[in-house]
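Input sequence (121 aa), recorded before submission:
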Amino acid sequence: HVQLVESGGGLVQPGGSLKLSCTGSGYTFSAYGMSWFRQPNGKGPEWVAGIYASGRASYYASSVKGRFTISRDNAKNTLYLQMDSLLPDDTGVYYCAKDRGRAVVAGSFDSWGQGTQVTVS
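Predicted structure, token format:
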């Protein structure tokens, strides 16, 4: 039974920073690519960043590139998202998602966490 649990959300002022965490259990965390998504109120989900199972390759949406950093600690079964220079448009519920394979492939996610709220105001 795959379980993903996000934490670290909160209220922050524009220009501030937050670090999100996502802990995975019920599967071999180190064998799968992982991604972060976000969903602003009233809008659809947006892919934010992804990282390969090994951690050696990562990718970002253009809206967050240069401000956000995705990383993982496979020994701790934990995925991270360091968010700097936050903007009001970064507000939303942030979810982590598990890919079906070792890479990060669009539309290939099979498990999601419950989400953590990030509010930039």
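Checked by second reader. The first strand starts at residue 3 and ends at 7.
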